[in-house]
Amino acid sequence: MSYTHLEVDARGPLRVAVLGVGWMGRFHAASVAQRVPGLVLEAIADPDEASAAALARRLGVAKVAADADTVLADPDVDAVVIASPPRFHPAQMSQAAAAGKAVFCEKPAALTLSGLDAGIANVEAAGVPLQIGFNRRYGAGFARGYRLVREGAVGTPHLMRSLTRDPAPLDPATIKPHAIFIETLIHDFDILNWFNSDAVAIDAHAVAAALVRPDWAPAGLLDTAVVTIRYDNGALATAEASLQTSYGYDVRLEVFGPDGMVTAGGAPEPDARHYGSHGVSAGTHQLNVELFHDAYVAELTDFRDLVLAWRAGIDPARFARQRPAMAGAADVRAALAVAEAAIASLQCGTAVAVDHSVRQATA
Ligand SMILES: NC(=O)c1ccc[n+]([C@@H]2O[C@H](COP(=O)([O-])OP(=O)(O)OC[C@H]3O[C@@H](n4cnc5c(N)ncnc54)[C@H](O)[C@@H]3O)[C@@H](O)[C@H]2O)c1
């Protein structure tokens, strides 16, 4: 008996480091290590070194650092997944890009448009690929709904509605100011923009309150919000969020136009129903990593393909055009611009124009 020698890719698998292995980063790290063929988890960085080390042992990773700098300086790291808190995103994407590493960055990729513009400018100057973690686009119902709307199933949208209801027990002390717009509703802003991608958002008008924890209202907590958005093709949209539901993780979209309506999300889990004397009941997903399990894996699979294409000399922008769900710099900028307008609107009480002008700043 002897070996059969096969043609293999001499460049080997992509070696990925994950920066920040809290709730989201832990899932991404496991996807890199176990769920996406062709990716290898090379290193992880998190200031909470004890829990990072425990995760590394579980996933069989030898390299763990308390600081992202160590990982970003590691020549064995080809690409990074940034899942640290958003205030670190612009600097970490800039540093990764300067070191020639491809970047997958969780939303929102910055807390402000000026910070985001600086991070994007540095990535573009370095010429490395950048993908943003707008996973909702990869949900099966959302992907199918997108195809239908793009094929003209509803005509030019008249009314659009996107909502997020999060079942995580609300700890008001951990909610950062305006997080409902910057971290939660940014998903809705992106999905509305994506489904209506022939148009741009003109302005946003927000109302918000602390209805889950009114006792935290004096401290400025916002746990419930509605934003109306006008688009330049006439479409009127609403995005709404609650940071606490009693019944599970609930994410839905409606796109209504002259020729019909497309909906996505809101499906019970799985498709089993209980028919009894009480009537009919069905389960719900409780966690984002349950509801969007396959979507999170699919976005990293696209990232792998993007980076491999880039290594093979294909322009990342050209490659991204073949993957309609893949979100990039312009998409996260458009979504964060709506979030900033919503926050400004809350402060002045009227609709605020969405800022589409890119600013010069430093990360
Ligand atoms: N796409 C989604 O559905 C989704 C869901 C949840 C969170 N997120 C995003 O993921 C990011 C992380 O959120 P999370 O819920 O996992 O938060 P988290 O607080 O659970 O985890 C953040 C982790 O980053 C670590 N950290 C802090 N400073 C760091 C630094 N400078 N470098 C590296 N790591 C650092 C923390 O110790 C912590 O372990 C946020 O941008 C959030 O918006 C996305």
TrEMBL record:
Keyword Membrane attached: no
Transmembrane segments: none
Keywords: Oxidoreductase
Gene3D superfamilies hit by this protein: Dihydrodipicolinate Reductase, domain 2, NAD(P)-binding Rossmann-like Domain
InterPro entries on file: Gfo/Idh/MocA-like_OxRdtase_N (IPR000683), GFO_IDH_MocA-like_dom (IPR055170), NAD(P)-bd_dom_sf (IPR036291)
UniProt domain Gfo/Idh/MocA-like oxidoreductase N-terminal: residue ranges: 14-134
Family membership noted in the UniProt record: Belongs to the Gfo/Idh/MocA family.
Protein name: Gfo/Idh/MocA family oxidoreductase
Annotated source species: Rugosimonospora acidiphila
